[in-house]
Design brief:
Layout (H helix, E strand, L loop, with lengths): L1 E6 L11 E5 L12 H10 L31 H8 L1 H15 L2 H9 L2 E9 L16 H14 L3 E8 L23 H18 L5 E5 L11 H18 L4 E5 L11 H5 L4 E6 L13 H19 L6 E7 L10 H15 L6 E3 L11 H6 L8
Helix pairs in contact: 2-3, 6-7, 9-10
């Protein structure tokens, strides 16, 4: 489950610019595990037969919660549900939700200078407890509990539609079946996605913890066209507004778009609209040989400039919705990593809606903000 940690200076919670953890994930990630018996069992039941040959954005940077046989490298909730089948996937996922997303997470977030949590969900949550095959029920109950705990600990919640019907990018975190990307290619598809937003906004509008609804995570250009995206964002915005005048509405920039400002005029005309950008010094071979200082400089120059480009006085609010204190530097010291994390927080702190760390809990230490805080690599307390 992905709790994204959102950080602002600690104060009584109000619906103003929070800082967020990302609970990894409401839409569960899969990482290949070590237990051969489980792999063989999954394979006998139903092999995962996706054929996407390219590398994905997540790779092995997410919790090792499940062991499954993978044909293509995709490791999403679709693959575990399809691979195990409903009978076996149901108890596996319900156990995951009940043990990996717990009240102590929200207590920890509250006690460590964070003000909100970004929770990614899949489109099938709107059909819970009986979602379409191969998905299994239970995620909605988990989100309900998350809101309950957020209210108890005075935290905001950003509901992030991380997987849309048809998949808005070919990666596992959009629940792509096989590396295909078909979201936004028809009016019916967009309408179905708007219905999901309407369901979520209706269900949680009365909660004092509903901070924002993120309409879509990381649509990939050019397949996700700007025209279809704006159509959806307009309809999704209106769906949220039908139920709440207070909640912010977050619109993710397109991955691989040549123009990072393409949403500014559109979103700038909508009250309480936010544009989301994600910054990593990963997922590109140019970073493979960067030194400590080169990474620091890249954040201070390139990403600082990029954020300034989308943060305009009369434009929408800006949100660095994902970042992580991880890089390709071998044998980095604790002081190196602290400087790297602090540099990012300094730069991304200029975003007018704050930032979110990917993620709260992870088996890979630097991807776990909980681990980074407990081991004093990151401190948010004033």
């Amino acid at each position: 489950h992905d709790v994204e940690l959102r950080h602002r200076r600690r104060r009584p919670f109000s619906k103003q610019r929070p800082h967020i953890p990302s609970h990894e994930e409401e839409e569960s990630s899969l990482e290949q595990g070590e237990e051969e018996e489980e792999k063989e069992e999954a394979n006998k039941d139903s092999s995962v037969t996706a054929d996407y040959g390219k590398s994905t954005r997540w790779g092995n940077d997410d919790p090792s919660v499940f062991a499954v046989t993978r044909v293509t490298g995709l490791q999403g909730e679709y693959q575990i549900c399809n691979g195990y089948g409903t009978a076996k996937a149901t108890p596996i996922l319900k156990n995951h939700w009940s043990t990996y997303i717990v009240e102590d997470d929200f207590r920890f977030i509250s006690e460590n200078g964070l003000t909100a949590v970004r929770i990614p969900v899949g489109w099938w949550i709107a059909s819970d407890p009986s979602p379409p095959a191969p998905y299994v029920g239970g995620s909605l109950q988990t989100l309900d509990k998350a809101f309950k705990w957020a209210e108890e600990y005075n935290l905001g919640v950003i509901i992030d539609l991380h997987a849309a019907p048809g998949s808005q990018n070919p990666f596992e975190h959009s629940a792509s079946k096989d590396g295909s990307q078909d979201w936004g290619t028809s009016a019916a598809n967009i309408a179905q996605t708007v219905q999901v937003i309407d369901f979520l906004a209706s269900r949680y509008a009365a909660s004092p913890s509903l901070l924002a609804v993120e309409l879509l995570n990381e649509p990939l250009a050019p397949r996700a066209s700007l025209e279809s995206l704006k159509t959806y964002y307009r309809d999704g915005y209106n769906a949220v507004r039908k139920h709440s005048s207070e909640a912010y509405v977050i619109m993710s920039n397109r991955l691989s778009s040549p123009d990072p400002t393409e949403l500014l005029e559109f979103a700038g005309g909508l009250p309480k609209a936010v544009v989301d950008v994600h910054y990593y010094v990963l997922f590109n071979s140019m970073f493979d040989t960067f030194t400590v200082q080169q990474n620091i400089d890249f954040i201070k120059t390139n990403y600082s400039s990029a954020l300034s480009t989308v943060t305009k006085q009369n434009g929408p609010l800006t949100f660095v919705g994902e970042w992580v204190a991880e890089w390709q530097v071998p044998n980095a010291t604790k002081e190196d990593l602290k400087m790297f994390a602090n540099t990012q927080m300094d730069v991304y702190g200029k975003a007018t809606f704050g930032w979110a760390y990917w993620t709260l809990k992870n088996v890979n230490n630097h991807w776990s903000m909980e681990w980074m805080i407990k081991n004093e690599y990151i401190s948010l307390k004033i």
